[in-house]
Amino acid sequence: MFKYFTVQTANEVLPLVIQKYDNIKKQKMEVIKAEQELQVTLSDNDTFEKYVVLKQKLNEELSKFYKTIEELEETGVVMKGLDQGLLDFPSKRFDEEVWLCWKEGETEIKFWHEKDSGFNGRKPISVDAESLI
User: Fold this and answer.
1) Is 58 part of a structural domain of the chain?
2) What is the pLDDT of residues 18-57, one digit of tens each?
3) Contact 20, 68 (CB under 8 A)
4) What is the per-residue DSSP string for 72-95?
């Protein structure tokens, strides 16, 4: 679903978004665990049966991982970097499309950046001085 967020609507949905983001991180750990189990099986010269079962488990965990990303992005938020903990909320500043951005550990949306500037171009939100919808 696409929508533009205001600072207020982004902050209202932020607790749910953080929960979904945390679910993605947990699911990533399940994928890593399944990959490690599969690698051990390869190095131990186990049977094809064990290998196939673990490979199917890895496929299931990968599917769940991508499903959790999809669930997050269905809120209208875009995940920019899982390992960096970066999420962006589409917004507008005057007539220009911009991103409201969140970094893991932040408790509210306090920054924005232009479409092409990314995290390094983050600027503090000043609702008085900036017209963010």
Assistant:
1) yes
2) 999 999 999 999 999 999 999 888 777 778 899 999 999 9
3) yes
4) HHTTT-EEEETTTTEEEEEEEETT
Give the count of domains, the chain: 1
Q: Is position 90 within any domain?
A: no
> Residues 111, 80: contact at Cβ < 8 Å?
no
Domain containing 22: what range? 9-75
Q: What does the alpha-carbon distance between residue 106 and residue 89 come to, in Å, rounded to a whole number?
A: 14
pTM for the full model? 0.86
The verdict on residue 51 lying in a domain is yes
Q: How far is residue 88 from each of residues 4, 16, 62, 111, 128, measured CA to CA in Å?
A: 11, 14, 23, 10, 22
pLDDT digits (tens, 9 = 90+) for 69-105: 999 999 999 999 999 999 999 999 988 999 999 999 9
**Cα-flanking dihedrals φ and ψ of residue 101, to 5°?**
-125, 150
